[in-house]
Amino acid sequence: MRVIGYIRVSTKSQGESGLGLEAQRDSLQRWCDARGHELLTVTMDVVSGAKAGCLHGRQVAIAAVESQVADILLVRALDRATRDSLDAAQLMQRAQRYGWRLMDCEHADSGAPSQRLVADITLAVAADERRKIGTRTREALNAKRQRGEGGLMSMSAQQRIKVLADQGYGAKSIANVLTAEGIPTARGGDGWSYSSVRRALERIKAGV
To answer: Domains in the chain and their CATH numbers?
Structure first.
């Protein structure tokens, strides 16, 4: 069968290193080789899987299978295709409606009724884990505020900003990465601004 592969990482630094993408690509190729399928091409995205509207590489892959260039859209694991439960359900329905199959290297197959429930559960767990990470971080920040430490940036956020800055990222790019990764701001928000990152960089440089 003809296969279009899709790979995704969440951050620009992961995309530039190529390690995550290369590992996913290798997994897709091995899966196809073991089954005698033809991997026609692989599209990719470097963005959070929760931002379905920004998954342009996925859109290209879907367009290819729906134009009958290929029969299967293959990902290493289902959470590479999406991390949003509603988007996942719509993706599965779309595959069924237009007669193509969404599959992964861990035996999920939208075309197999016996696997549909497993796929739904896998995607739901991935989406729930992302929510839990955000919730745990916000709870920690709330505890800090209750101790009179409100407005303090988490150590994980500071470390991430420093790493990205050391890699040559500017304040605007760092803000985009932090937002995509779902790292809460000092006040528990989910959207980073250029100015907040710039202030953080100034504090880090000053050793505060």
So the answer is: 2-125 (3.40.50.1390), 151-206 (no CATH)
